[in-house]
Amino acid sequence: PGEAEGNQNSGGQYSGIESIAAAVARLRTTFDSGITKPYSWRIRQLKALKALLLENTPEIEGALIADLAKNPAEAQLTEIGFVLAEIENTLANLKRWLRPKRVATPLLIAPSSAKTVREPLGVVLVIAPWNYPVQLLLVPVIGALAAGNALVAKPSELAPATSAVFARLFARYFDARAIALVEGGVPETTELLKQRFDHIFYTGNGRVGRIVMQAAVENLTPVTLELGGKSPVYVDDTVDLKTVAHRIAWGKFMNAGQTCVAPDYLLATPAVAAALEPLLVEVIAEFYGADPATSDSYGRIINDSQFERLTGLIEGESVVTGGDSDARTRYLAPTILHDVSRDSAVMAQEIFGPILPIVTVDSLGDALRYINAGDKPLALYVFSDSKAVRRRFITGTSSGALAFGVPAAHLLVQGLPFGGVGASGMGAYHGERSVAVFSHDKAVLSKILKPDTFNLVYPPFTQKKDAF
Ligand code: NAD
User: Fold this and answer.
1) Active site residue 218
2) What are the DSSP calls for 291-309, one per residue?
3) What mean pLDDT is predicted for residues 51-63?
4) Catalytic residue among 183, 260, 350, 432, which?
5) Atom of ligand 1 nearest to the CA of 419
6) Whose CA is nearest to atom 8 of ligand 1?
7) What is the pLDDT of residue 460?
8) Residue from 188, 226, 277, 432 carrying the catalytic annotation
9) Which ligand 1 atom sits closest to the C-alpha of 155?
10) What is the ipTM of this complex?
């Protein structure tokens, strides 16, 4: 990830390194003028985004087909409809989320009143990846606008069709004084990171996450890092394996496996693995037909370097199903790997493609030890009907999210924080949390001057010690 093959500027309003510093400076002037602060301005921008999506759905769907062969029905669930639901939830609740919250004050300073007041941070930067190029750009943008910030959005150069569509539509729908979109790859992002922002929200891989955090140090800019990693699935023998196979195949092969919360690999005992393998083969045929290459429900790999990396991971492994590929169309079949060694290449990195390695364990304890020996995952999935097993996972593991019975669907719960821990990231968003990420909750205290009930704390202290 991160190579800038598709690194071209396709006419974004502020593309070109020369103008980046000027564009950011202009956004700061806008923010300082106060126009982004009123509730009415925020609502107007959110409604503009809603109109942008509703009035240009076919064009956005077309861009997703061009970039990822993403089926429009899948795009509704995971991209366009997903963002619309986030807008609706924000429109319905923003007034309440922005209301100052009263806080009790101690007797020592009575009479007084205290509250927190949510204020925008200023000018913020949202850097998005290529795999869900609509959702992962726009959901953070919703939070930034709802919180009253000016912003720069930087879509991924590796999804160039989607990037170009938004470059055009942002300028048409949003208040261009406060919202800029910069297209481009490493040079443009590097230049952006030299500017002073009040928050940087980055989604992508950990290598670039480190670059972002390092750049943020200069101006003490807070960061949210939405990163990835290997999200495990554990299956035991207490569950209906046929349903499990459906759920896992859905989460894994959606977007051809290029999903940050996709199940990365499967842990099971040899007996469970043996029972699950033929079921997974059946389900793949049910979802995508005998030849997934001809299914319009199945996506394609984003670019040649990812394609080569993924096909390389299959080499030398024992293939249960799939494994075939076509470099010209970047098709890689839904692939299941049998009894993969723990020190194989496919277990040494985040897969981020349609390959599911099955790693056998001899017990629950073995599975937990294996998971805990690795980086903290973005998501951890468990299929077990045993309460005791579920409890072991809740208390005995750490991950961005833990889901029982279904992968990836926790993103649909707007009240749940979405984010990682440790190597899978820092900070979380969605719903009210998105507004909190891009706001400062300012502490506001007020106390009347007359009568001066505060004289108890003034020096000299000699006779007053006992009063405290
Ligand atoms: P990517 O290559 O599109 O990179 C993301 C962004 O970083 C892009 O905008 C890109 O221009 C920028 N970038 C790349 N190199 C840079 C550099 N040297 N300096 C500054 N900016 C640079 O996407 P990716 O990183 O390949 O995305 C895949 C990764 O993202 C996976 O690890 C996946 O798990 C993770 N991911 C996480 C989430 C989440 O929400 N936590 C969501 C999707 C993807």
Assistant:
1) no
2) -GGG-TTS---SSHHHHHH
3) 98
4) 260
5) 41
6) 156
7) 87
8) 226
9) 9
10) 0.95
